[in-house]
Amino acid sequence: MFILTLTYIAPLEAVDEHVPAHIDWIKAGYASGTFLASGRKVPRTGGFILAKGNRAELEALVATDPFMISGVTTYDITEVAVSFTAAGLEQLKV
Fold this sequence. Notes:
This protein is of the alpha+beta class. The chain has one domain (2-92): Alpha-Beta Plaits, CATH 3.30.70.1060. The protein is 34% helix and 28% strand. The chain has 4 helices and 4 strands, in the order βααββααβ. The longest helix has 13 residues, at 19-31. The mean pLDDT is 95.
């Protein structure tokens, strides 16, 4: 399991120009079964994605995010080993 952390490095006006394409990219990640959850940071300084797969595949996928291509965000990829979950979230366990 991986936590992909996005940090905006451009003004929100620049980020907002790429939101529709980024959302299409996010939807494709869910359709492929790679993404499990995602959302914005509060305050809005970036976002996060819970993903499954291997690091090399995720690094390649992140490189195709319109936010990355346009240079408005950076990504941090953190691998985690989920040991415990609330009921209904068992699929997150290693």
